Predict the structure.
Amino acid sequence: QVQLVESGGGLVQAGGSLRLSCAASGRTFSRYYTMGWFRQAPGKEREFVAAINWSGGTTYYADSVKGRFTISRDNAKNTVYLQMNSLKPEDTAVHYCAASRISNIVGRTTTEYHYWGQGTQVTVSS
């Protein structure tokens, strides 16, 4: 199986930055997996934030975070990162890491992913 563990969440003021990390492990985890970040605010559906293909050469972002967030990965460490800058109160949510067994997908929908982390809370105060 595959385990995903997120870290790096916390409380930050608007305009601040946070860097989330997602460490992947497990016998069946592969560097060829597509990785993604999603988030879910109270009372709302889980929404796409960003995705990255296996090599890191292709990335996708939700319009709401484009230009502010950067997704990256270090395959040697089996870790994916989400650098979040210029944070806004509307970014407040539990942020989840996800992995798909399919190498090259756009990865904007939850149904494309097979494994999920437990989530890390990001709170942005105004």
Notes: The mean pLDDT is 96. The two ends are 40 Å apart (CA to CA). Residues 48 and 108 are 6 Å apart (CA to CA). The first strand starts at residue 3 and ends at 7.
